[in-house]
DNA sequence: ATCACAATACTTTTT
DNA sequence: GTATTGTGAT
């Protein structure tokens, strides 16, 4: 009797694969989390691997926690070869693990272990500063776009000095990038991308450090491998080392939805090339959804041009038909969702907590929230910025970051005049100029003023701003002293009292009360994480996103974006806003790669559903204030009408008919000649045996096919020369 | 010089 | 609904 008895043959093959590079290609709902957790348990139990040697990388911290919990459960199972309870091993996201390594090795690095992590809005503030510094027009060079370019470069491990370009715009980006990076350094700050980049640089340059980590992490597991970017992949390779490391990666190219963040599912191909001896296991059976839902999902993903028809199968039976609903406007859409959930609950067909509502953009949650509130029903929102993006929360965090790392200028500028201290733009600018001229960081000027108002720095400043700056400096000094003495919640209280933050934020209105409640909630987080120091608290705040804190104890419907839904499952799923311009999103419509990603995103949403699926579209939609008509999503039209519940199928067939007359398609109208060998196709080669097509591209009249063979690894073959037989679908 | 309030423009997805 | 910019009052 072994733990592995609970698995199907494919899963068992993956879990008990001999240590070495292994690629697990898993369809949705195929139990890949299960495979990963069993693999860890197998290493710990069966192979008696010391826990310290294992590192598991997950996509979210929530996934990490979930996995830890499950492993603990597995190891407590009497059938586990080594029935002691769970032991600690490294587990977390790339970013969290990288941050830990950087703090540990900070002595070798050009920043101190007190570095702060800048989130997207901090980054944008810094880019904004840089653009202004270079006397560029913010309108012409929107910080967000420049930041995107910088982030893309960082994900490819391209630093400011290596950044090459041939365009004028690229030249601007390069110059902003240089200033931006300099500012990060002088602020003792790292952005998200730096966490990865700096670790990679460290491991590349410091031989002894690299050796140490390689010796330490003998077994590495990666979840959602299709969403790794170049920096992450290089980091993995550095940690794993050469030869045949035990690198166990699990992914599904069809669920790759983070291309815009630099993720490259071709890492799957790279993996096979870099580790020619790697094993490959497929997980094809789906344990989650009914056949109807799977058929709908497959119909959508199979429209992906140049892709093999995939047969996901389940033994769960057909289940109820898919429901398609057309609402009049967003309010109507939201009330339809709320009413349907209420009805299902009332009939006892589902618990409120079984239901999830998914949408493309966070903004779409608003009408839903209003409808839930109107109906007096509770809900849970997994929002990107629901909590940590709020002004009052950011203010308090900025204060704490400043205390933690006074070099953090972004935070300093944020709070210097919040609450108002009569320090306007002019005073701030004079402070910065004075600091620059004296060659010191701005905060030292403040601290100097606090000690001695007549310090030499004072000359350039007006008497009124000196008073304000001095007062702020005194407060800062006292907090810095407190930092050493007081536990975190008490430190927070001190900041709130000295700044009299409450009377600033809480004006007695409902909104003000709400804001103060948020401040207290943040304090509560600090309190809960008992004994946590300031460093860990700030790191938690920076790296732990809302969905990581998603509690499943509440029995209420969940509202979340399709991206946030990745890796989750619900008995009842609503996907709303199935309209052209929303899903697919307007900004993805003129790029066929992006359009393909939108399609995969929809596919991810569909495959979250276990039993029932509701697809909702809206006839009229308000965007940026004006309401206009919109057309049904092209993805919706790909769902075969015979999977849709009677009354509603008409909506589809009518829309499909009108669609025929138009020329919207995923690829240009003329369309390039298509490849004969589509990704995922099973083939047989006379010499190499059976394999799977990883990619194929046209090469003149010929076709170059990249194939992974079960026995031979990756080969690139010319279709005209190699005698490739296409095997029938794996039915 | 600062601040409060009004007008304005913009709004993908997130570790 | 939010962040930035503009305006007039203090």
Task: Tell me about this structure.
This protein has 731 residues and is α/β, with parallel strands linked by helices. The protein has 25 helices and 21 strands. It has a six-stranded parallel β-sheet with strand order 3-2-6-7-1-8, sandwiched between helices. Strands 9-14-13-10-12-11 form a six-stranded parallel β-sheet. Helix 12 packs antiparallel against helix 24 (592-606) and helix 13 (330-346) crosses helix 14. The chain is globular. The model is unreliable at 663-672 (pLDDT under 50). It binds a DNA duplex (15 and 10 nucleotides) through helix 4, helix 8 and helix 17.
Helical content class: 40-55%
Query: What gross morphology would you assign?
Result: globular
**Oligomeric status:** single chain
Output the number of helix runs: 25
| Major sheet characteristics | 6 strands, parallel
Distance between the termini: 31 Å
Instruction: Let me know the number of strands.
Output: 21
The radius of gyration computed from the alpha-carbon positions, rounded to a whole number of angstroms, is 28 Å
Query: Strand fraction band?
Result: 5-15%
Counting helices, strands and paired strands, the structural category is: alpha/beta
The stretches of 5 or more residues where confidence is low (pLDDT under 50) are: 663-672
Mean pLDDT: 86
Strand order of the largest sheet: 3-2-6-7-1-8
